[in-house]
Design goal:
heterodimer, A: about 500 residues, alpha+beta, Beta Polymerase, domain 2, Cytochrome-c3 Hydrogenase, chain B, 3 domains, 15 helices, B: about 250 residues, alpha/beta, five-stranded parallel β-sheet, globular
């Protein structure tokens, strides 16, 4: 039987059952039918060829399950029965040339040359067979890779009938730096900063997922004071980005007062992070086995005072935004996703919570040693939900999360536990699978490592929340107008670099 | 309407005093590095081993730190037993030439503004097109804030525009991935002359953390003529604004 484990400790690879390809896909489908989700589905090179690994998230009691198959060069695609496998299977095919037979939409996602023995010819970026709607009055709108704003590159194709979007296809890969291959070099001084730049606006989130992997491998949790400072930094990151995005949403519907206040207040939160470490994006806060910066009493007081001021400013701006009838008129019933779509596509983060799905890694997969949810210690961060699945719901969920994060930060900064900042990690477990997960502001960030017999990672996998949610954005545009794209896009605000890696 | 006005009054004026006064930066901000070769212990290469980007080099006259590669992580400062490399809070990091980004024991080189022909054209009105070519998105985020009320680059006639055809210059970020090289060159070509190019962040200047990776192409410097180099990972908005103002020959505080 495929085995169950948690993200708190590494699992010996010989305990991960090796199934025949048919049994493997049947197992994944059974897991999904039973309510589990695909946390990661990926290929890794082994001595006898490429193996596939599936890690399933059970979303309760830190529960995970895993199985593997291989060596494998082709297998029956999961995607027709299990759409959340769609992007993972495209990635496996692009990287390793393992063919998911009967995959309905098998094209590149990052436009790079294949790995290992996979000698597929490198495609030119953006050149693929796009889905096309045919008809006398159908037209196509193509945008990017370079966009009109100060934003990362990507290519978007809208199939339109008049203003109505019948389908949006998103083609990425322009930010592909080939960074995953470097992450197995844990002794390289580049590794920590590379982790922090997987997606620059989610520096803390990715750093925490990475530390989750190391902590599981070494069986060492960071000390309490470090965990508290990490949690503070993670929530400050969420505050900055949610605030900035709500400001951008206000700008997209032409409501300038809230747009200019929130754009500024985002900077106030970034400056709070810089108060801790000198860098507005939190570079260097998370360090192996702990944190790189302490908050002495004076800085903690300063942070508390700034949080109190920012709370008033943020609330004032958000009240204007959510009281404006013209804003609500544009937010409501725009870019709606049904809960079924969110389940099928395996969405995470605020877009999933805006459909009523209580997916939040802070609750289901808390960091080892971190505050335990529901402990009543006043440091519990509640999951915020809405159920209409539209731009309004995504905006509202973010507003509620801002309030929850402020509550947490104000309480946590007053109650920092004493003690050391770093605890030296123990020896890394050999021949194991380890999983790290953090609830970044966009949603769950999963990092996975397979170690060799020396305990070092021989394969490292990163799944940014954007990897799951880009297709959700494409879906949200169906039946909407082209002019609703900026609004829908900003309500997700997905990462290009986090996807492209 | 009344609530909108009340809130406007309550939120107040938030534009920073810079460049009329010195900027206020976080106390732990790592700005212009200082290198003191006299403090360097012979045979100690502690700083070189910990630098993630190879920004530090040993030279016959002591260590030299290339701000074009530096990500300002401070690892060298922590590793150095004698205080040879330290980071000041000086925000004046930008330079007009690649060579001027190298910090050694010598005096910082003088920043030369654009030559008169382009400076006169752009000093009251500069329209920029941003090209994001790899990287992590943080450089873009801190370029974006220049347009907020806090930094308000509109004060200086500087604005980001939506087409290279409307632009006087490009701001490039990222190490220039293989997949973005063609788009960068096409955007540069589409920008009318005379134009300027600004490389913002370690990636755009040198490839940064991604230098040498097979999927990246060495930053903007390797592909287009660059007029302004802004170090950082990412550069603080004040560092960028200071660079822009000095490029245009506009007054900044000493």
């Amino acid at each position: 039987m495929p085995m169950a484990f948690t993200h708190r400790e590494a699992t010996p690879l010989d305990r991960v059952p090796r199934l025949a390809p048919g049994e493997f896909t049947a197992w994944v489908k059974r897991q999904v039918a039973g309510g589990a989700r695909i946390a990661a589905l990926f290929g890794a090179p082994e001595q006898d060829g490429v193996h596939l690994y599936a890690v399933m998230a059970l979303d309760r009691d830190c529960g995970l399950a895993a199985a593997r198959t291989g060596p494998v060069s082709r297998y029956e695609s999961l995607t027709p029965d299990c759409p959340q496998a769609h992007w993972f299977e495209r990635e496996i095919y692009e990287q390793w040339g393992v063919l998911p037979e009967n995959h309905p939409w098998l094209k590149p996602i990052r436009f790079h040359a294949g790995y290992g023995a996979n000698s597929m010819i490198r495609p030119r970026p953006g050149e693929t067979s796009y889905f096309r709607v045919e008809g006398p009055e159908i037209h196509e709108v193509a945008v990017g890779p370079v966009h009109a704003g100060v934003i990362e590159p990507g290519h978007f194709r809208f199939q339109c009938h008049g203003e109505k979007v019948l389908h949006l296809e998103i083609s990425l890969g322009y930010q592909h730096r080939g960074v995953e291959a470097l992450l197995t070099q844990t002794a390289d001084p580049r590794t920590a900063p590379l982790i922090e730049t997987l997606s620059g606006d989610a520096t803390i989130g990715h750093a925490l997922a990475h530390q989750g992997v190391l902590s599981a491998l070494c069986g060492t949790a960071a000390p309490a004071r470090a965990l508290a400072i990490r949690s503070l930094a993670l929530e400050l990151e969420r505050l900055a980005n949610h605030t900035g995005d709500l400001g951008a949403l206000a700008g997209d519907v032409g409501y300038l007062p809230a747009a200019s206040y929130l754009g500024r207040i985002r900077g106030d939160y970034l400056n709070m992070t810089a108060l801790i470490c000198g860098n507005r994006f939190g570079r260097g806060i998370v360090r192996r086995g702990g944190v790189g910066f302490d908050l002495d009493e004076r800085l903690a007081d300063e942070l508390a005072a700034r949080l109190a001021r920012a709370r008033v400013d943020t609330a004032g701006a958000l009240n204007l935004l959510f009281e404006s009838a013209s804003v609500l008129g544009r937010f409501e019933n725009t870019g709606t996703l049904s809960v079924q779509t969110a389940l099928d596509l395996g969405l995470v983060g605020p877009p999933a919570r805006a459909c009523g799905l209580a997916r939040d890694a802070r609750r289901a997969y808390p960091a080892p040693g971190a505050y335990s949810p529901g402990s009543g210690d006043g440091l519990d961060i509640p999951v915020r939900l809405h159920d209409t699945g539209d731009v309004f719901a995504r905006a509202l969920v973010r507003r509620l999360e801002i309030e929850a994060s402020l509550d947490f930060c104000e309480a946590a900064v007053r109650r920092l536990p004493g003690g050391e900042l770093v605890r030296a990690p123990g020896a890394s477990a050999p021949d194991s699978l380890a999983v790290g997960v953090a609830e970044g502001w966009r949603g769950e960030i999963w990092h996975l490592a397979l170690t060799g017999n020396d305990g070092r990672p021989r394969a490292y996998k990163v799944v940014d929340p954007s990897f799951r949610n880009w297709f959700g954005l494409a879906y949200a545009l169906r039946g909407e107008q082209v002019s609703d794209f900026p609004l829908c896009n900003k309500s997700f605000n997905l990462s290009y670099c986090g996807h492209d890696l | 309407m009344l609530r909108v006005i009340t809130e406007r009054l309550r939120q107040g004026r938030r534009t920073i005093a810079f460049p009329k006064a010195a900027p206020v930066l976080p106390e732990r901000f790592r700005g212009r590095p200082k290198v003191d070769p006299a403090a360097c212990k012979p045979g100690c290469e502690g700083c070189l081993a910990v630098c993630p980007t190879g920004a530090l080099r040993a030279t016959p006259s002591g260590p030299a730190l290339d701000m074009g590669r530096c990500i300002f992580c401070g690892a060298c400062e922590r590793a150095c037993p004698g205080g040879t490399v330290t980071f000041s809070r000086d925000h004046r990091l930008a330079a007009g030439t690649r060579a001027d980004l190298v910090v050694n024991g010598a005096e910082a080189p003088r920043f030369e503004a654009l030559e008169n022909a382009r400076r006169k054209l752009f000093a009251g009105s500069l329209r920029l097109r941003q090209v994001s070519a790899g990287g992590c998105g943080a450089c873009e985020a801190d370029l974006n804030v220049l347009s907020t009320v806090v930094f308000d680059i509109g004060r200086f006639g500087i604005e980001f525009v939506a087409s290279p055809r409307h632009a006087d210059g490009l701001v490039v970020t990222g190490p220039v991935t293989r997949n973005m090289l063609a788009a960068l060159l096409a955007t540069h070509e589409a920008t009318p002359d005379p134009k300027i190019v600004i490389a913002s962040g370690a990636c755009a200047i040198s490839g940064g953390l991604y230098a040498g990776l097979p999927e990246t192409r060495g930053g903007a410097t390797a592909h287009v003529p660059v007029d302004l180099f802004i170090p950082g990972c990412p550069p603080h908005p004040v560092v960028i604004l200071d660079g822009l103002l000095r490029l245009l020959g506009l007054p900044t505080p000493d």
